Amino acid sequence: MRLYIALLHYPVYNKNDERIASAITTVDLHDLARLSRTYGVKRFFIITPLTDQQRLAERVKSHWTEGYGAVYNPDRKFALEIACVSGSLEETIREIEDAERERPLLIATDASNQNVRSLDYKEAKQMIRSDRVLMILFGTAWGLDRAVIQEADYLLDPIIGPTPYNHLSVRTAAAIILDRLAGQHDTMPSSFEHC
Amino acid sequence: MRLYIALLHYPVYNKNDERIASAITTVDLHDLARLSRTYGVKRFFIITPLTDQQRLAERVKSHWTEGYGAVYNPDRKFALEIACVSGSLEETIREIEDAERERPLLIATDASNQNVRSLDYKEAKQMIRSDRVLMILFGTAWGLDRAVIQEADYLLDPIIGPTPYNHLSVRTAAAIILDRLAGQHDTMPSSFEHC
Questions:
Q1: DSSP letter for each residue of B144-189
Q2: Which one of A155, B9, B15, B80 counts the least CB within 10 Å of its CB?
Q3: Residue A163 phi/psi, 5° resolution?
Q4: Contact B169 A37 (CB under 8 A)
Q5: By a Cβ cutoff of 8 Å, what residues of chain A touch chain B?
Q6: What predicted TM-score, i.e. pTM, was given to this entire model?
Q7: 8 A C-beta contact, residue B146 and residue B11
Q8: ipTM associated with this complex
Q9: CB-based burial of residue A12 (10 Å sphere; 0-12 exposed, 13-18 middle, 19+ buried)?
Q10: Are the Cβ atoms of A167 and B39 closer than 8 angstroms?
Q11: Contact at CB, B174 and A172, closer than 8 angstroms
Q12: Residue B125, SS3 per DSSP
């Protein structure tokens, strides 16, 4: 399994459908790092072009991997070691390409069905098992910019429960998606280098 | 489906295995309310015996259901209307019993396997589909007190990913559990009365 995930803070939409760079939500960094470790994700990229937000994400990471947090909670240290801060999606793709010698296939996620080609969970799961290098893109705020969705190789089906309500947090949506796609694997995650 | 969920802030453990009442994490209230609406849960109980913490939870709820938040984001209003603050597990059970004229079966959750009777996801799913009144109990901090687990009718299997790491947040664990247990239902949630 050569699976990566990325949490994009740009380009995403605000409530008024305007393109913005969203603020870091520190609890997202913890939750997605812990999910990554649980489901064998190789690296979790936190993408933001804002240097103050990059510094905030780095500070959260270093508190738990090198600071007091590392002693206080070694499980959290182990989780946050997998997190990497990146300035853009392009930079992230290049980094993975360098490590894997293969360009990752990009799977975008969105709460609504955009009427474009979309991948069901069974197909996505097979793809993950195929040993292709894949990266799942999660959007913060009101979701990924349509340009990102269109540039991605695939758009994953939205999470549909038994009700018409579809307003999950990105943390809980990522949990459900990773459990559906990587929950039944019995392989161990590959080793990775810290960033 | 007559499914309830409860987030317990007491009795739970702290890091040193001491019984405590944990503090409310407001993001948990939002995430679990949104999950409840997505998966057709009838009510989401926030359990804490501490009156200042009850007031905090009520304040979060009223901001989003009656205050500025209700106008700002009606989807969040709809989610948080399902949340009820309760002083104890016993009080919560009585409230459900009054509404359903049936005592709920209690399904406890825990990240580790306690070597007691434990319910797999297939069995739990069938139980939910059987129209029995059920309540899933989620613990905050370092997890539910063993006494609660022992008093519950069932203990659900822990979430096991493809790795040995099992330190998810209660938010993401609840997301995975609800998706596994109620994700494939095609029934709509029953109506409920606000609390």
A1: B-HHHHHHSSEEBPPP--SSS-----HHHHHHHHHHHHHTT--PPP
A2: B15
A3: -125, 170
A4: no
A5: 1, 15, 27, 30-31, 34-35, 37-40, 73, 75-76, 78-79, 159, 161-163, 165-169, 171-176, 178-180, 182-189
A6: 0.93
A7: no
A8: 0.93
A9: buried
A10: no
A11: yes
A12: helix
**Residue pair B14/B132 in contact by the 8 Å Cβ criterion:** no
| Domains delineated in chain A | 2-161+170-182 (3.40.1280.10)
pLDDT exceeds cutoff 50 at A189: no
Phi and psi angles of residue A107, each rounded to the nearest 5 degrees, phi first? -115, 110
- pLDDT above 80 for B185: no
SS (H, E, C) chain A: CEEEEEEECCCEECCCCCEECCCCCHHHHHHHHHHHHHHCCCEEEEECCCHHHHHHHHHHHHHHHCCHHHHHCHHHHHHHCCEEEECCHHHHHHHHHHHHCCCCEEEECCCCCCCCCCECHHHHHHHHHCCCEEEEEEECCCCECHHHHHHCCEEECCCCCCCCCCCCCHHHHHHHHHHHHHCCCCCCCCCCCCC
State whether A174 and B179 contact (CB < 8 Å).
no
- In the structure encoding, which two tokens stand for residue A51, read together? 């240097």
Written as one letter, the residue type at A109 is T
Q: Using the beta-carbon criterion (under 8 Å), do A185 and B179 form an inter-chain contact? A: no
For residue B173, the chain A residues in CB contact (below 8 A) are: 175
Q: Closest CB to B30: pick one of A30, A169, A178.
A: A169
The pLDDT of residue B131? 87
